[in-house]
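Thread: "does anyone have the structure for this chain?"

Original post by V.I.:
We have the sequence but no experimental structure in hand. Need at least a predicted one for the grant figures.
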Amino acid sequence: MPIHDALSRLIIDFDEADHDGGQVRAHGVMRFGAALEGPPGRLHGGHHAFVRTLPIVERVTAHEHARTFPCSVDVSMQQGLRLEEAIPFEATYRSEGKSWQLTTRFEGTDRLVARAHSIADVPLMDAAELERWRALYAETSPDDDSFDMFGFTIHLSKNVVWLESRDPLHTLPGSQHAKLVEPGGTLGPAFVSTQLDTVGATARGALMRHPHFTKHIEIQFATGHIAAETHLLCLADRTRVEEDVSSETAPVEIKGQVFGTARVPVALVDAAFERVFATGTVTAHPVDPAKFEALQRMRQIRKDR
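Reply from O.Q.:
Generated one for you, tokens below.
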């Protein structure tokens, strides 16, 4: 099933249980299709930032859809979410004046808490910060390392990890980018969250040359709709990878070197560096080598089937 179909057909049983002034309490059940797979049998990390926030906001009857963007999401993913099963969640929505906020909690655990809220309709970067990203990209070279994944190319330069998208239904029809184009011919928050997760996690993984997983994503969205033909650059800043000293996940040793949790700045801009569509951070952690062996065995079993 195309990814956008799996997202647009999210099965959500939703019940607004309590209204109290500007607050709505709700609970529901969500089921994720197989097209949203990341780790074997589990939801892809980049999809967490979307499915656990914005589809739920859109189902709150008190919410005005025209007010959804610009917004920010802050999503913790310290536990996997199974596919093709009914996953319970609870939500609290509040609105006051022109602002709104949502908190969700999946499977009754604080390890799966997500927040979303409206933000001011102002540029996500000032001119100096945008110029900094432009300079990082300007230093890339055709000789930089690259690899293909999900039908598109990820480039690794000295200071930045990047990928591009331009009219994917025509230029990359078999890619994940094309599968994320919405019926109206636009790219939405599902595209933004998955691609920022891709470059951010890759920036961390490239330092270790070892499998890793996303623990946390924070994204600020300027808009919910980007014309699919827009020439986009999705970027991760390798010069500002920052260790997360507050992480409670134990560091692991990889080939004699110890790595822990790290945070990477990411951004989605147009190729002319005139417009910023999203900014954020992706926090990733290396897979424990012992657990990685088990993961490889799981993948082999699935392949043999």
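V.I.: this helps a lot. DSSP finds eight helices and 18 strands in the chain.
O.Q.: and Residues 168 and 178 are 5 Å apart (CA to CA).
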